[in-house]
Amino acid sequence: METTFPRLLLQHAAQRPADPAMREKEYGIWQTHTWADMAQLVRHLACGLHAAGLAAGEHMVVVGANRPRLYATMLAVQSLGAIPIPLYQDAVAAECVFPINNAEVRFAFAEDQEQVDKLLEVREQCPQLAAIYYDDPRGLRKYAEPGLQSLDALIAAGEAFAQKNPGFFQDVVANAKPDDVAAMFYTSGTTGNPKGVVHSHRTLLDRAHAGAQFDKLTHREEVLAYLPPAWIGQNIFSYAQWLCCGYVVNCPESSGTVMIDLKEIGPTYYFAPPRVFEGLLTTVMIRMEDAGWLKRKMFHAFMDLAKRVGPALMDHKPVGLLDRVMYKLGDAMVYGPLRNNLGFSRVRVGYTAGEAIGPDLFTFYRSIGINLKQLYGSTETAVFVCLQPDDQAKADTVGIPISGVEIKVADNGEILVRSGGLLKGYYKNPAATAEVLTADGWYHTSDAGFLDAQGHLKIIDRVKDVGRIAGGANDGAMFAPKYVENKLKFFPYIKEAVAYGDGRERVCAMINIDFDAVGNWAERRNLPYAGYTDLAQKPEVYELIKDCVEKVNADLAADALLAGSQVSRFLVLHKELDADDGELTRTNKVRRGFIAEKYQVLVDALYGGKSEQYIETQVKFEDGRTGSVSATLKIVDTKTFAPVKVAA
After folding, report:
1. Residue 148 pairs with which residues in a beta bridge?
2. How far, in Å, CA of 76 to CA of 41, rounded?
3. What is the DSSP string of 221-249?
4. Residue 334 DSSP symbol
5. What are the boundaries of each domain within the chain?
6. Residue 359 near residue 490 (C-beta atoms within 8 A)
7. Which helix H or strand E contains 497, and what residues bound it?
8. What is the layout of strands, in order, in the sheet containing 507-513?
9. Which of the pair, 444 or 626, is modelled with greater confidence?
10. 5-209+220-266 has which CATH code?
11. Residue 232 neighbours by CB under 8 Å, 6+ apart
12. CA dihedral for 213, 217, 219, 222, sign (positive or negative)
């Protein structure tokens, strides 16, 4: 698209100034910001930042939850030709040091006291960080740090500058070019320092527009912005497509009110990673288990019908008259109230991505009339590479290449992508850029997969993680750890899994239980427990998880390619894997190598034939304190199955 984000803002403000652009919930009440309001706010912020010394080409850090003033600050920075860098609001202070120094950041936006404290803590390591603007003043009244100023003061200064220079804002916005850098996103890499992914207005808007065309998005959509702004997916759904389509973005009051706010807004266009959909379904099933027998019986009877005919109805396939009538009855009595309770009564298009979603989970949502689909993309591709058409949603694929995308598969199985949404490069890292971008414009995704007969893309694992079993009955068999982990996580009782097996005779796994689901399961069986560590080591819980693992093994045995990846031994970890402890990335991806190093004693015990192993681990609590968790972990052997021979 031959335009920029600030120009699109002004275009919407001129065409429909009184229409709502954003809403935010404050003190339990939704506050509306019109397009005219947003344009004026951006104008004053841009003028204020210019007067403070922010120059074209400079970077400005933005850290906080989704808020109209955070988005307005990003637009103001872009208006000046400068580049916003959103950082994860739940990152610890030390994680902010590299991006701030790497991008030579002098200016920062901080949402509240927590984020201000974080930036002040690293100031000695980032001496160039001169100005910090905060939005929420609570707790900051007595702070007297140099360069610390409220956003209100910046807006007031900008308003005064705009009155003296009435044509300034329009001129700088008009001077911006589509190929100018629009934003930089630091990847949460599983190894080493994060890389700054550089995107232009053109690359981000190219993919935003292609995605909008694919799903026929209009200005009438309602979106709930609740995921971290530092994640490019949130930026595409609630920033790039917001300005591309002109729909309404709603910001929840807090992370704790998201479910309430979801029900109040009733979004029409919705995105969530699989773990959110898993959590919602777990909550539903827990509530149903606690319901009366009649309600339980009705629920399960109608859900059996929904699983049988619901997906066919969603895909516009023929369904018998009786089934249609019964489904309509189920919709009135079960599916409709359930959609409403989940906040999905108005969802027209729903997406999930980031990890594989379980077939049962995927089928559940589609069977009750929610148009849940999968997509494929990454930070480097501006998200939209493959999307699923409404009537071709499958649990085992990630969709077809959309407008402007070419895909080819390399000899080693790696997916290569070429599109108008590819990154300009990695900031100050030409070597890393050369590794992923070829001279003729192909991007190496590092994902292994293939296109099926219908043109849908299937992802197996990361190319570097696909290994081989060495020795034993499965010598030379393919090992795809992420594929195995995802299959384990399809069970509601398993929250996280880490599988090992490359270069070894067999596959072993470390597992995190889902504390809510397993806790509810234990309570229904009058099984007492004192916290996560105690529950995780109960013999009954091990039997529950063992059953899940063996079901996965039976499933893998039917796959000729991955039959050798069956899990032969496992243990249940004494603590939940946590990004603050370095075990997960900020986007909740497992850091397998780090975990293997940190828990080397457990890996050795799994492969050394031990039946138990003592472990003590240092953990970081939410309030910043550190402590330790210790336990003697049981190690259990599981049943594996002979590969199923397919008839010729």
Report:
1. 132
2. 9
3. -EEE--S-TTSHHHHIIIIIHHHHH--EE
4. I
5. 5-209+220-266, 272-370, 466-637
6. yes
7. strand 494-500
8. 494-500, 507-513, 567-572, 626-637, 612-620
9. 444
10. 3.40.50.12780
11. 185, 197, 379, 382, 383
12. negative
**Range 394-420 average pLDDT:** 93
Tokens of 407: 């895909």
Query: Which amino acid is present at 374?
Result: Q
For residue 561, pLDDT over 90 is answered with: no
Tell which residue, 504, 443, 496, has the closest CA to residue 473. Answer: 504
10 Å CB burial of residue 451 (0-12, 13-18, 19+) is middle
Architecture in CATH for domain 466-637: 2-Layer Sandwich (3.30)
Closest among 454, 469, 455 to 561, alpha carbons compared? 469
Find where tokens 């902010």 sit.
96
Residue from 140, 131, 90 nearest 113 by CA: 140
Burial of 458 (0-12, 13-18, 19+ CB in 10 A): middle
What confidence tens digit (pLDDT) does each residue in 194-227 have?
Answer: 999 999 999 999 999 999 999 999 999 999 999 9
| Higher-confidence position of 355 and 549 | 549
Mean confidence (pLDDT) of the chain: 93
Question: For residue 427, what are its two tokens?
Answer: 């900031």
pLDDT score of 647 more than 50? no
- What does the pLDDT look like over 484-526, one tens digit per residue? 998 898 888 999 999 999 999 999 999 999 999 999 999 989 9
- DSSP 8-state code for residue 413: S
**Do β-strands 148-150 and 131-134 pair in parallel, antiparallel, or remain unpaired?**
parallel
Going across the sheet that includes 414-419, the strands are 405-409, 414-419, 443-451, 457-462
Predicted structure pTM score: 0.83
User: CB burial class (10 A; 0-12, 13-18, 19+) of residue 626?
Assistant: exposed
Q: In the predicted model, what is the mean pLDDT of residues 183-199?
A: 85
- β-partners of residue 426 are 197
Q: Is residue 153 scored above 80 in pLDDT?
A: yes
pLDDT for residue 282: 81
- 560: its two tokens: 């000729």
Region 223-250: what's the mean pLDDT?
Answer: 96
